[in-house]
Design a protein that fits this description.
Largest sheet: none
Shape: globular
Structural class: mainly alpha
Length: 167
């Protein structure tokens, strides 16, 4: 049990650090607010190695800590809206056994963007923001592919360590 807690602590720390670094070096994107979301690779790795409950915990903890340390109340609201919807989509896709890690990540990227646009439209009380949905879906697919590919590369190495230490 202590090893699992330590492993989850390491994953949480990695997700927070990656999210922080991504804030320091934003990628030039055509629409405001779009980012790679590389910290989601840690959530995906956790989903595969420790299960849905642990992955949800890592996702929620990352959103909360990064929001409190480097963001705002609105940032936390946007993060939770996107993060929870993204997680639910990824967990459902993984449970279906019809998608690989990249496909699961694409679901995460698309649904993260959709969750954030819904909360943004609610906060500013305008449906006009939904005109961005097609662009956000495309961005979610592209970033989801990149994050899924990275998570897949990392996961192959992490699974060896997990089997060695956790049986």
């Amino acid at each position: 049990m202590a090893k699992k807690i330590a492993y989850l602590g390491i994953l949480s720390g990695l997700a927070i650090i990656i999210a922080y670094i991504e804030r320091l070096f934003p990628l030039p994107m055509p629409l405001p607010g779009i980012k790679l979301g590389l910290a989601n690779a840690i959530v995906i790795i956790t989903l595969y190695t420790m299960g849905a409950r642990a992955a949800l915990g890592i996702s929620a903890l990352r959103i909360l800590v990064v929001g409190l340390l480097f963001g705002s109340v609105f940032g936390i609201a946007y993060g939770f809206a996107g993060g929870i919807l993204s997680f639910a989509a990824m967990a459902a896709a993984k449970r279906s056994d019809k998608f690989g890690i990249v496909g699961i990540s694409v679901f995460g990227g698309v649904f993260h963007n959709l969750g954030q646009i819904v909360i943004a439209a609610t906060i500013v009380q305008t449906a006009g923001l939904f005109y961005y949905v097609p662009a956000l879906i495309i961005a979610g697919v592209i970033t989801g592919i990149a994050v899924g590919y990275a998570a897949g590369l990392i996961l192959s190495h992490v699974q060896e360590v997990i089997h060695r230490h956790f049986g």
